[in-house]
Amino acid sequence: MTAASKIWTRVDFDKDGKQHGWLQLPHSVTRSAYGNIAIPITVIRNGSGPTAFLMAGNHGDEYEGQIALCKLVRELNPGDIRGRIIVLHAANLPAAMAGARVSPIDDGNLNRAFPGDPDGTPTFAIAHYIDTVLYPLADFHHDIHSGGSSLQYLPFASMRRSDDPDLDRKALAALKAFGAPIGLIWAYSPDRRLSSVAAINRGLVALGGEFGGGASVTIRGVRIVEQGVRNLLAHAGIIDASRAVGDFAGPPRLMEIRSRDYYVYAPEAGLFEPAVELGDDVRAGQLCGHVHFVDNPGRLPESCHFDGDGMVICKRHYGRVERGDCVAHLATDCAG
Asked: For 294-320, how does the pLDDT look when each residue is reduced to its tens digit (9 = 90+)?
């Protein structure tokens, strides 16, 4: 039997209306012996119907989703919907307030913490609450990301392949309805402790996406998220179809990531000079970039190359690299 979460809230998930409240995570420190980490949550409900659980701030330095969801809950009223919308605007609140990928409390990466641990450090306790309390309430889920401080992405919405063809069919339909310029399918991932994997394991129609990067906020990225979330809610039947915005710029270009070979990593620590830009089409063996050694200028730079063909959908934002840092990755077109 799974242990119960220690997180508590005064929000009533079954009550009609709009509620702004907090998830209270007990956290005893010198400053506050009986304190809590108060994670903001909004619930909007109007009668029976499907539930969409929208989440941002899984990584604290990814901002487009945090902004778009704050705007959404101010704009939507219960009379606008049928069913329920649950919103975590800053899921890993300590990371969000620090503007960091990981929590300053426990160095925890929420998107590597699922299915979580109710007795673990704050990040793992948050993951456990999401997995055992919020996911079972939901039918649709969108965890909104961007490249954070270290990466830059071409904006895309995404889904992840599961072992359930029917669930994949529903996720692909939701991905197309979201209407981002690129719809990406993750057929490969270097880690399985992700929120999207946990959501799929709970049977949810789960989307993700990367809508910018470099710890910045772009007008285009926020707009894609705002429009796409409304399209998703219309697709789910939670808002009227007439309130859908439609495709951002025509039907999405469907792409996928199939293997580890899509990724390029820094061979040495140094200063990385890229040889490609986002959106470039590249071939196997093509130069990705050079690592320079400014502490030893007479040393020749180390080069890194692409292992396959594809389009550069992600590249490193930081100039400094350590050996093993991802400096770019590809995506390739697919039929869906």
From this structure: 999 999 999 999 999 999 999 999 999
Write the pLDDT tens digit of every residue in 166-197: 999 999 999 999 999 999 999 987 788 999 99
CATH 2.40.50.100 residue spans of the chain: 263-333
Distance, in Å, from the CA atom of 86 to the CA atom of 51, rounded to the nearest integer, reads 7
Q: Report which residue type is found at 53.
A: F
Q: Which of 108, 101, 89 is nearest to 149 (CA)?
A: 101
The CATH architecture one would assign to domain 263-333 is Beta Barrel (2.40)
Write down the pTM of the prediction: 0.95
Domain 8-257, CATH class in plain words: alpha beta
Contacts for 269 with CB less than 8 Å, ≥ 6 apart: 291, 321, 322, 323
Start-end of CATH 3.40.630.10 domains in the chain: 8-257
100 in Cβ contact with 90 (< 8 Å):
no
Cis? peptide before 274, omega within 30° of 0: no
